[in-house]
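Bit of a strange request maybe. I'm writing a small parser for structure token strings and I need a real example to test against, not something I typed by hand. Could someone generate the tokens for this chain?
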Amino acid sequence: MRLFLHRSPHADARPDGSPISLIVLHAISLPPGCFALDGPRALFLGRLDCARDPRLAPLRAELEELRVSAHCLIDRAGDIHQFVPLAERAWHAGVSCWRGRERCNDFSIGIELIGDETTPFTEAQYHSAAALCRTIIDRYPTIDEESIVGHRDIAPGRKWDPGAQWNHARFLALLRRAAPLPPELRLQ
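Reply from user aminoacidic:
Good idea to test on real output. This should exercise your parser:
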């Protein structure tokens, strides 16, 4: 497991009085069915060029104006890519609500996993997600296991991810035993 730091322009300051109390898990595959890092990284960095990849042509209208990010992304090898410092607001949740609180971006941390609805996530992704979430929980004790949810849980009917291939019970079992990220993998 390695940590790579990037800086997304798609982030801003959190509103005052919004303690971080939620982790939202997502899945991304861009182009659809492709598990390379290039597409999601370009999207989060504001550098996605739909004209250069014919597989993105059907999504061009949707993607070209899209301004999204996540705090972290976990690739298929289990490497962690941080795009937004945890204390800042990443633009990952969109129209959302959790336990009566709207605008989940204000009080959540977004973690993307490279994957889709039909392909199981990798063992490395589960272990990295557990270590990453353990590190976040240690930093923000207002987050507990019940506050780690899928995008579908905060935007039902609008979002599906992380999807049926994500085994949340297995992830929680790993989280309970997980050590935080090693000190040399220091999140911003």
